[in-house]
């Protein structure tokens, strides 16, 4: 049986393999394995791509978010507001920075952070709000920016799933600070872990760079206690090669998402909603399977060689790691309902119409069983 992967990293590599090899040769010839010209070039190119002036490459997306929070002044004794519907790394970064995660529910249609709930959750100890840009589209950051106007609360965007997405024409980080991940399956993926912080704030960029480099910008000069979280030259070479194709790859994702919209018409599923003002880049195509049948349908798809998945099956407050927050089941009904019904269908720039038709045929069969 031919399988259809959720993400086809082999197809992506085949397209860029020759250029990646050339990039690796440059890095090896220069022996610039940590930092170096390749990293500097990628930071400049990614900043230009996002339209945000400063980019600092780091080791992974979780570090990017933690370092962004720390550079924004988040630390022990403070609270950070974030959605319950997110990957665990968002909450981990807050906890690692020494702050307390304060969770809020998600919008029932887009699954993005409920901005009204986030603003209502602010207290005198709130130091930041982290809107998470899920599945390839941006949360309404401008509403949070307006809502915290005059307060000493920073907006730090979790942009791990939205490279190239825009809201009213601007990308993540345009309002202040954003952290992103280049995990291999992302729209812009490395060949291992990698991440970056993009920001309009020169001081934040300098603080992230210092924190990520053992607390100093020059060797053996350590101004603060820092971390070892640096982007390496080999990953930068991969990212530069893929970045040149990212706009075209995102366009291909949009075509595939539109095809799914058409193919799924008439099936008993809820198709994804794009928020007005957003240009989606479809990191994931997430449907909802009502009636408590999601797990059964997923098992049938997987048995047919369809690489469907769930993003994410357990809201943050129901994980054992964050049980200490003491929210309990029922605290965030939209996030909990979403977690029980969402299903991610295969989608990537190289997926074919025939593959998508087979996915939907298998889905229809599973729903009818």
TrEMBL record:
PANTHER family, per the entry: 3-OXO-GLUCOSE-6-PHOSPHATE:GLUTAMATE AMINOTRANSFERASE, TRANSAMINASE
GO biological process: polysaccharide biosynthetic process
Annotated keywords: Aminotransferase, Pyridoxal phosphate, Transferase
UniProt-listed CDD domains: AHBA_syn
Family the entry assigns: Belongs to the DegT/DnrJ/EryC1 family.
Record GO terms (molecular function): pyridoxal phosphate binding; transaminase activity
Native organism: Planosporangium flavigriseum
Protein name: Glutamine--scyllo-inositol aminotransferase
Alphabetized Pfam families for the sequence: DegT_DnrJ_EryC1
InterPro entries cross-referenced by the UniProt entry: DegT/StrS_aminotransferase (IPR000653), PyrdxlP-dep_Trfase (IPR015424), PyrdxlP-dep_Trfase_major (IPR015421), PyrdxlP-dep_Trfase_small (IPR015422)
């Amino acid at each position: 049986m031919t399988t259809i992967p959720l993400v086809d990293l082999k197809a992506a590599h085949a397209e860029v393999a020759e250029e990646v090899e050339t990039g690796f040769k440059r890095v090896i010839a220069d022996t610039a394995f940590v930092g170096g010209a390749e990293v500097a070039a990628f930071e400049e190119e990614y900043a230009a791509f996002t339209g945000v002036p400063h980019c600092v490459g780091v080791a992974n997306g979780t570090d990017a978010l933690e370092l962004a929070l720390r550079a924004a002044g988040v630390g022990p004794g403070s609270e950070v507001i974030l959605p319950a519907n997110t990957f665990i790394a968002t909450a981990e970064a807050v906890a690692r920075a020494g702050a307390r995660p304060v969770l809020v529910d998600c919008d029932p249609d887009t699954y993005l952070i409920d901005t009204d709930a986030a603003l209502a959750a602010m207290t005198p100890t709130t130091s930041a709000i982290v809107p998470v840009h899920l599945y390839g589209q941006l949360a309404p950051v401008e509403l949070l920016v307006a809502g915290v106007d005059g307060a000493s609360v920073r907006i730090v965007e979790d942009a791990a799933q939205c490279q190239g997405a825009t809201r009213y024409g601007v990308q993540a980080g345009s309002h202040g600070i954003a952290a992103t991940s280049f995990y291999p399956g992302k729209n812009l993926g490395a060949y291992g872990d990698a991440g970056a912080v993009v920001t309009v704030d020169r001081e934040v960029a300098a603080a992230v760079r210092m924190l990520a480099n053992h607390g100093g910008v020059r060797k053996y000069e350590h101004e603060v206690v820092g971390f070892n979280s640096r982007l390496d030259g080999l990953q930068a070479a991969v990212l530069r090669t893929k970045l040149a194709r990212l706009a075209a790859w995102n366009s291909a994702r949009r075509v595939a998402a539109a095809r799914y919209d058409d193919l799924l018409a008439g099936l008993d599923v809820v198709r994804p909603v794009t928020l007005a003002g957003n240009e989606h880049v479809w990191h994931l195509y997430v449907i909802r399977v009502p009636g408590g049948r999601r797990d059964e349908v997923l098992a049938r798809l997987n048995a047919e060689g369809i690489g469907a998945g769930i993003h994410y099956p357990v809201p943050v407050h129901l994980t054992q790691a964050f049980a200490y927050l003491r929210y309990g089941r029922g605290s965030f009904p939209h996030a909990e309902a979403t977690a029980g019904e969402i299903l991610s269908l295969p989608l990537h720039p190289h997926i074919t119409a025939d593959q998508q038709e087979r996915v939907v045929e298998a889905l229809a069969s599973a729903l009818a069983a």
